[in-house]
Amino acid sequence: MVAKNVSTMIVMISITLIPMVVMSYGPEMEGTATPRVPAPFADVSCPNFRTRDLTDPYVAIAGDAVWEGDWTCGKKFKITCISSVDNLPPCPCKPDTSVVVTIVDHCLTQETCTATGDAFYLSTQAFDIISYPSPNINVKYERVYY
Q: What domain of life does the UniProt record list for this protein's source (predicted)?
């Protein structure tokens, strides 16, 4: 009888913890994403991410619509491709895929960031998870935490 209760409790705890792995923090928004260069990025402005030794290849530079000061550094966003920017076929989006990226920088100049609006500049590793080769894509995004 005790073994049955213990196994039931373990199953209940496991089921309770699974949905908490990635939780949404804010409303889902729409914007654009553009591939940048492979991670790690050489020079970033976020204090905790100024090293070439970052092990997470899924990083992004935030455009003005996403950037809200240095507190944005290290925040995670779930990004899903929804269409090409010009909405013409073929759609570059990989079906049923999303990627969670960590913000490591703010895009300050049009010279280095060419997309406009609610933009993310993704490492090529992150971009390749959600899209086939494309210059930029429309995305849905939301802030998440673990």
A: Eukaryota
pLDDT in tens, 54-95: 678 898 988 888 888 888 888 999 999 999 988 888 899 999
Asked whether the beta carbons of 94 and 131 are under 8 A apart, the reply is yes
Q: How many helices (H) and strands (E) does the chain have?
A: 2, 7
Six token digits for residue 120: 């993310």
Provide the domain limits for residue 51. Answer: 22-145
DSSP state of 6: H
Question: Any idea what the CATH number is for the domain that residue 71 is in?
Answer: 2.40.40.10
Q: How many domains does the chain have?
A: 1
State both tokens at 30: 């729409």
Look up the pTM and report it. Answer: 0.75
Nearest to 58 by CA among 82, 29, 43, 36: 36
Single-letter code of the amino acid located at 124: T
